[in-house]
Write a structure and sequence with these properties.
16 helices, 404 residues, 18% strand, methyltransferase, Nonspecific Lipid-transfer Protein, Chain A, DUF7884
Length: 404
């Protein structure tokens, strides 16, 4: 009894301390049924239920990592709309002086072929059926492109692929390499509509198998080769190279070598496009409030996000000239909102496919990333490039060709 009273006193002090900083529409419900509100309201937007005393340290040292970890491990439950849960979670994580004053940490991981293969397979080999429940029909797992803002997900993902292929001015008969080809949507579109000859590489066996099936079903096996292969092992020369949602796995220190490899594979008059998530911290530090720690532990092992300045610097060091840089931050916020909504709508089927921990990880990850893109914690850029040192006379005068 004394132990329970002591804990209740601690949580009340913690709640009172938080109420002094700002009001949150959050109710904390303890395992004994007692409640502590962090604001004045008739009914809370979010109720956080602490299921056991051992969960209190996660809450009282709240950052996005500790709160998400507690939810994933089922030490706490969260009730409320997903938008409210994420918004309140961010506010609670940012309410402590220690967290708001914390500088972003720049971490580096080993990125050998074995480590990268294991990280990719951990993330992408959950199951094809899992991804099919919340991605678009082509299973494009990267930022969509909303030309007008009101497109549905399938339309926006097709527009993204076409936007990329127009940016690199893909022509019939040209040889295209897609690094990190996913389930094959881009190479299939490039062959079908643009008449290209394509090679797509992935480290995910499940992506490789389904992409190969889809190429065969489309009758494009004579134009497209899907390989289970590391991009560092690709040889030959390609007129066009695309890398969409892959370079986050490369590692900041390895970026010059990554772009140098693209340079080596690219024809002298070729074009390449890199599409990837970036940090908004000028020093390429981790995402604030503990989000990076959670993502590294549960979602993207060893993922590293560079600032766009580091991307462009590394590209130049790799012997490439940046020709066009476009931010799609708003587009990725919208993409993730649609993914999260579809995930919620298919929650029963998803829970039948995966265990509860996996379900909770991805539920928080999708909605949390949507919020992070919306508030400029992270961003995304497409960069078109070519071999450095070429004549300016070969460049287009305007960007009109991208939108024809």
């Amino acid at each position: 009894m004394l132990f329970t009273r002591t804990l209740s006193h601690q949580i009340e002090n913690w709640a009172a301390d938080n109420r002094k900083r700002h009001t949150l529409p959050l109710r904390i419900k303890l395992w004994d049924g007692s409640t502590h509100d962090l604001g004045n309201f008739d009914s809370p937007a979010v109720t956080l239920t602490v299921r056991e005393p051992a969960a209190l340290p996660y809450l009282m040292a709240a950052n996005l990592d500790s709160l998400s970890d507690a939810y994933v491990k089922q030490k706490i439950d969260l009730d409320g709309s997903l938008d409210d849960i994420i918004s309140v979670g961010y506010a609670l994580a940012g309410s402590t002086t220690e967290q708001s004053a914390l500088a972003r940490v720049v971490r580096h991981f080993k990125h050998g072929k074995d480590e990268d293969r294991a990280a990719i397979q951990y993330h992408y080999d959950v199951s094809n059926a899992f991804y099919q429940l919340w991605l678009d029909s082509r299973m494009v797992y990267s930022c969509a492109y909303f030309e007008h803002g009101d497109e549905d997900l399938d339309t926006a993902q097709l527009k993204k692929i076409d936007h990329i292929l127009r940016k690199i001015q893909l022509q019939p008969g040209q040889r295209l390499l897609d690094i990190g080809c996913g389930w094959g949507a881009l190479v299939i579109r490039a062959a079908q509509t643009f008449g290209a000859r394509c090679v797509g590489v992935t480290l995910s066996r499940q992506q490789f198998e389904l992409a190969t099936e889809r190429v065969a079903a489309a009758g494009l096996s004579d134009q497209i080769e899907i390989r289970l292969q590391d991009y560092r092992d690709v040889t030959g020369t390609f007129d066009r190279i695309t890398s969409v949602g892959m370079f986050e796995h490369v590692g900041r220190k390895n970026l010059p070598d990554y772009f140098s490899r693209i340079n080596q594979l690219l024809a002298d008059d070729g074009l390449a496009l890199n599409h990837g998530i970036t940090s908004t911290d000028p020093d390429s530090g981790d995402t604030a409030l503990g989000a990076s720690e959670f993502i590294d532990r549960y979602v993207f092992p060893h993922g590293e996000l560079p600032h766009i300045a580091l991307v462009l610097d590394s590209m130049q060091r790799g012997g490439l000239e940046a020709l066009d840089v476009e931010s799609l931050r708003r587009h990725y916020a919208r993409t993730l909102q649609l993914w999260a909504s579809r995930y919620e709508a298919h929650s029963a089927q998803i829970r039948a496919l995966v265990d509860e921990q996996t379900y909770r990880i991805w539920r928080l990850y999708l909605a949390g990333c949507a919020f992070a893109f919306e508030r400029d914690d992270i961003s995304l850029f497409q960069v078109v490039c070519r071999k450095a040192g070429r004549s300016a006379q070969t460049l287009a005068w305007s960007r009109r060709y991208m939108y024809a």
